[in-house]
Amino acid sequence: MNSFGNHFRITTFGESHGVAIGCIIDGVPSGLGVNEEYIQTALDKRKPGQNLYATARREDDKVQILSGVFNGVSTGASIALIIYNKNQESSDYENIKELFRPGHADFTYFKKYGIRDYRGGGRSSARETAVRVAAGAIAQKFLNILDIKVQSGVCSIGDIEGENFDFDFARTSEIFALDRDIEELQKEKILEIKKEHDSIGGAVIVEVLNMPVGLGEPLYEKLDAKLADALMGINGVKAVEIGEGVNASKLKGSQNNDQIDKRGFLTNHSGGILGGISSGQNLKLKVHFKPTPSIFKEQKTVTINDEERAFFLKGRHDPCIAVRGSVVANAMVCLVLADMVILNISSKVENIKKVYS
Amino acid sequence: MNSFGNHFRITTFGESHGVAIGCIIDGVPSGLGVNEEYIQTALDKRKPGQNLYATARREDDKVQILSGVFNGVSTGASIALIIYNKNQESSDYENIKELFRPGHADFTYFKKYGIRDYRGGGRSSARETAVRVAAGAIAQKFLNILDIKVQSGVCSIGDIEGENFDFDFARTSEIFALDRDIEELQKEKILEIKKEHDSIGGAVIVEVLNMPVGLGEPLYEKLDAKLADALMGINGVKAVEIGEGVNASKLKGSQNNDQIDKRGFLTNHSGGILGGISSGQNLKLKVHFKPTPSIFKEQKTVTINDEERAFFLKGRHDPCIAVRGSVVANAMVCLVLADMVILNISSKVENIKKVYS
Amino acid sequence: MNSFGNHFRITTFGESHGVAIGCIIDGVPSGLGVNEEYIQTALDKRKPGQNLYATARREDDKVQILSGVFNGVSTGASIALIIYNKNQESSDYENIKELFRPGHADFTYFKKYGIRDYRGGGRSSARETAVRVAAGAIAQKFLNILDIKVQSGVCSIGDIEGENFDFDFARTSEIFALDRDIEELQKEKILEIKKEHDSIGGAVIVEVLNMPVGLGEPLYEKLDAKLADALMGINGVKAVEIGEGVNASKLKGSQNNDQIDKRGFLTNHSGGILGGISSGQNLKLKVHFKPTPSIFKEQKTVTINDEERAFFLKGRHDPCIAVRGSVVANAMVCLVLADMVILNISSKVENIKKVYS
Amino acid sequence: MNSFGNHFRITTFGESHGVAIGCIIDGVPSGLGVNEEYIQTALDKRKPGQNLYATARREDDKVQILSGVFNGVSTGASIALIIYNKNQESSDYENIKELFRPGHADFTYFKKYGIRDYRGGGRSSARETAVRVAAGAIAQKFLNILDIKVQSGVCSIGDIEGENFDFDFARTSEIFALDRDIEELQKEKILEIKKEHDSIGGAVIVEVLNMPVGLGEPLYEKLDAKLADALMGINGVKAVEIGEGVNASKLKGSQNNDQIDKRGFLTNHSGGILGGISSGQNLKLKVHFKPTPSIFKEQKTVTINDEERAFFLKGRHDPCIAVRGSVVANAMVCLVLADMVILNISSKVENIKKVYS
Lengths: 357, 357, 357, 357
Hints:
With 357 residues, chain A is an alpha+beta fold.
């Protein structure tokens, strides 16, 4: 159950403090230009330890391609990527060896597997998302063939919400803020929260430009369902909205319907998806991250033997996971779309004739 | 791509105005008591034409078991269910033969498949959800083995939101309202909207009691991700929230973390899922439905030949799909959980020994 | 576990003496001409009760299309087929209610599921293969787009083996015999065996003409592996050979290698597959069926309570399942190839560009 | 398409002359003792360069566990294994850069992917089978829980066929010969063939002891079908037989049926599988390998530009791939059975109660 996708499919491995993390990407067609530098650039966006707003923990995150690429071009064979773990200070975790950290997966993993891999969350750590970003970069490369462009950024930190979104600005912002007018406020919020030894939630927007019509496979590989799957599966995500999202439940049909004329749809309340299939309009997605559970205040918890303890966290952690989460959300959307581009090919007999003629 | 689930798995067929709809359910263990009456009871909850608040269109929806059950007990063979279509007035759809109805999947299906199955939405119609409800009833029967209880109801109609939720009340309410104090207001809202020839959105809550710890398969069959997949895939759903949901992005870690003592978790902000695995607390899910796109006001649209038209809808339609949607959401959660109960079995060597000893 | 195929995928249901058998076919692209008459023609080839060489049991086997086809053309939606069961004389099976028939799956199904569905084998009955033949007809229709032609016939009955194979002759032979010179001998063999109240094994050859190069997905959806899966899964098959088959293990490399010149391969020892991928040469497959276990001689067996019994079979049964098995083998090969044609499309970036440009 | 198995599932990567080969194993339950030494022992059986009868090419094949194991015990997380490639003399392949080697997959891979990864077969090389052996060792470890024992050996080299099989002897034989009386003859045969610059086919037998009843999932994950899939997918395999195999097509029902009395089945013609489900008898499988296509005689071939060439092979190659193939066949059977053990758990409601009570 460590695979995502049908045809363009990743299978991942690795724990936060194990030897390495990595993945195998299956279904990359031959003839795609792929190299380590390109993937590294994507990875570096997610890399922690780069500024005040993320964890001071440094992860070098050097990606290596092990297979599937020959002379800089994909061969059609499975592509394996590996990132060796460094700078893991397992000693940070000595004091939690037998404790369940509140808000973390420690409790549920222990109950499910009967084993306490206490080293920084083990498999449940968000460290694994580095692999998603690396694989997502290859997916984005694949989407370039069709000029599909996935972009993302942070729209809100706690209750400080942006309004005017600029994805180009977000790319250059240290916190990937979408609204330049409130970026400073959002940064201050993060520093304030850090000072309080607390953490804060945030929300991310992903938008996709140049969408082809027809992506999404009814009825159980619908585009919206698969995006929800992909995004809700990211560590810390608690809500996913598409188009009008939550607001849609408050609207009337006459407000929410997107009417059509010769030039196309007049509005985009749907977020670019109708009946689980892309309409050709831009995709509009919103993802809500909870505050990181790693806070530095005293909390009540129990040990694996059910003894009560006062818990004090050590180590280095992100005050707001939504920031780096925006990079991961972007990657997951790329992975979904790459898969959907391939699945859609066989929708019509006509397409099949094109390929084989 | 008409299958849902890994091990407890449904594969569905049928269009709203075809011969029949139905499904094959794979992975039902042998020894489960199953009969048509039981499934019919579940189906009847979703059945339209029963009161003023749903479409006047009557669908008889008599379910028949074709296989997999012998003397009232599942045999381990695949279970096929069929519901023959009746009362389809295809003539209702004559005038939309070449039109794309705004807010419907007409446009996207036509672009994807090159074919206009104009009879009431064809495969994209919510009629298919009857099958999900029938299959969901068998899943709930399976969950009964572990006393897992899935319940659902409508929390808001447009901006009329309930606060005090009573799932027992919802079961008896004609609109499955969760809050008895505002049920009357919500009913009035629906009738008012009907009079306006418009429709209205709504939100649904699904809660699960007696959850075992350990359901959910990391990292790509996480319980939350699969629930999001299942729920976002229902016709008209535009947002899915788990636990604090959207609100989580506004909270601090110290507010959102669920601390633990000997008696268990002190709060349930997480909605019963940590790291994609159930914590044993109640599941808390919220699903937002858009207003049904079928409204009786003039709308702009185009034909399949891209000619502009003023569109006037005929036929009979739900003013608020969230109402019947709450039954479908319940069924989808049952299907996810049944699958997860089975997947979880092989988490430990210990479990395997129990079975084979 | 009632599904076969990845993209062109069937999911089947039904027991020999239940209400109906049928399937859902997923992944048929839109735009394929499909109708009941065409499928019926294929089914009629498999139908028993047509001559002296098969069981006298009559199965009417009228197939009906329930979904996925509109105005004679596939719409891209899942296609459901149903065949209602008739002429099931369950009374034939009263005397075996608690017995395990030697050579049948009675014993293993009972031990696995704890339930004895004694009505003619239930789910394990070869009756289900009617559905494969119906689905295979749609697959063959799909393969027609590329002019791929799958043909099959019986090469041996017991030790009476043919040498000169003529697939056109086989189509008209009552026992689908490939060699017209020994057909008469083979028929006599069957009648002789019937008179002995015994049964006899047989072998079938499947050949595929006009194969495209490139079908088969390394490394775990290889064409040869999937054909072996498909063919070994047919009731009664005990061996599958490709190209030189068993004989390959006796040859030298210099004998077995297919050398190449400008005109192509000089020989076809490989059977048209190299490295799990089709070479463009004809596929050559051989399938060995065991004698039907249903014989009319006294046999030792036990009851479900482990009491010893002398067993005497009643009912009507094929003396040689290889005969009708040749129709099923043909269908299974069609299903594999249809799937492989679709999977192969995304092998190259170039193909994807063709479709989306 | 680089994954094998449903629940106990491997996904592999790597080319013969790339950086590394390896796999991710998904679905290993927590609590299984796993370490590198154990896997290495299995790998060393397959390792070439150990005697006169295999290729002189040395592959060090040091396996490393990257994840999923903590303190010597599986954690339930995906297990990644890696084997770095060494001793690849790519220069050996300079002269075939543009040639298709007869009997190899060069031609089909080039036609499918449009790329010539000429370095020793690339992804199509049997080098990948080292990974299968490593993963198979973990599967065997898992099977030990139920005392299931998979054993294999070589029964024939060319036409020199053994009769009295001794799997203990095979384990110690340099050519894994099953019959000690003809081992010497078989060895001479191999040396003779080497001297002729040719190669030779061979056959392998796999037997499984202590099989539980009930493994195999009807109708499309039957045990026999999956074994055929697994075995036919091994490089060079051209035929798979189960139980009586090819011979079954020559027998009468009265000869082939396995009658039953209180002590169990009186014979084992079925090879331990009835209706696709294990009967509890020993599994009996036979696998036929073609002669390795790598021979040192002049052969006709063409270049990627379709120019005719006389081809002379360089390098070091196995004269008989069946020898090392017997180790791979053993591993594949282990992988199938591990998967089936897990799948079977949910066959009965009763089993599920056992786990959750």
